[in-house]
Structure formats: C-alpha cells, structure tokens
Amino acid sequence: MAVTVKRLDDLDEHSHTASGMSMKLARHGLDVESFGMQVIDMPANCDAHPEHDHAEGGQEEVYVVLEGSATLHVDDQQFPLELGTIARVGPAQKRKIVTGSDPVRFIALGGVPGKAYEIPAFSKPGQDG
Questions:
Q1: Is the whole-model pTM more than 0.85?
Q2: Rounded Cα distance, 75 and 54, in Å
C-alpha cells in the first residue's frame, strides 16, 4: 500500500536560528517525488523570508495558510494570507512573505508545469541548498 501518514512534529526540519523561521521537510517526510512541498513556520514580525522568483527554472508556487496570518508581497502588490486563503504565484513574479503581529504556518507547494519534478538538495535532511 502506498500511504504515508506523519505528524508535522515527526518531519525533519531546517531551522534558521537568527530569524526564528523553520521549514518542515514535508515532501521528503512523505516520500513525495512529483512536486515540492514544505511547511514553513514564521514568527511574528518576521521579514526573513527571502525575496525570490523562479523565472530561470519555471516553477510556480502555491501557498496554503494553516495557522496565523502574513502578507504576500508580489512585485509592487500586497496580498493578505490568512486561514482560508490559497495563493498561486507564477515563476517570473518576485515574491516575499512577511508576518505582522501574528506568526504564520503555511504549506508551500511547487512544480514546473509540464515537467517532471526535480528534487532540490535543500529539501533533503542534512543538506543545504
């Protein structure tokens, strides 16, 4: 049977001590190979999420808020991310997530339309990317 069930606390994690951010390696922990999937925790008043795009590789990302709230900055626009919100950002858009007075926990999903997923080193335990 091809089923994997885990609690978030049982997933390997990358932590960034200075910012308080952490990333649970959900893709690795569930043995997912067809798309990227991480659970990101950001403390209140955090702007350490790196501004980035995926123009070179063509990856689109989807964010699903599990707890708390944040603001998604895309190019020169801002979008509230809160429970019940789901957002997609295309590959060429610069994006950054920032928290206000509340922390946030969200799932980040990623993949390249029409292409097989390539697992990046950062999403494997003990690796830096």
A1: yes
A2: 13
